[in-house]
Amino acid sequence: MEENKGFTLGKINLILIAVGFVIIVLGFFLMGGSTTGVEYNPDIFSARRITVAPMVSLFGFVFIIFAILFKPKSK
């Protein structure tokens, strides 16, 4: 019985997964900030926080799925 000592995913896949993770972190960073009190802050309804940041995060998750399924061309 052969034992597989290598990783299931190749080096390219791991690099792509890391890039996807950075994209997700960027999306969460764009959502950013925390509430600092009870006063009303209209910035929580900005287009960046409601539209752009979730789309960037979603793209990061889709990119990670692509990175896992990606099969490099054999030599």
Can you give a write-up of this model?
With 75 residues, the chain is an all-alpha fold. The chain has a domain at 20-31 and 43-70. The protein is built from two helices and no strands. The chain has helices at residues 11-31, 47-69. Helix 1 (11-31) packs antiparallel against helix 2 (47-69). The longest helix is centred in the C-terminal third of the chain and has 23 residues, at 47-69. It is elongated. It starts with 10 loop residues before the first helix and ends in a 6-residue tail after the last helix. The mean pLDDT is 86.
Element layout with pairings:
Elements (H helix, E strand, L loop, with lengths): L10 H21 L15 H23 L6
Helix pairs in contact: 1-2
Shape: elongated
Largest sheet, in brief, is: none
> Which bin fits the share of residues in helices?
55-70%
- State the separation between the terminal residues, measured CA to CA: 27 Å
Q: Compute the number of helices.
A: 2
Indicate the proportion of strand residues. under 5%
Radius of gyration: 19 Å
What is the string of helix and strand elements?
A: HH
Mean pLDDT, all residues: 86
Structural class: mainly alpha
Question: How many β-strands, per DSSP?
Answer: 0
Q: Which consecutive residue ranges, at least 5 long each, have pLDDT under 50? A: none
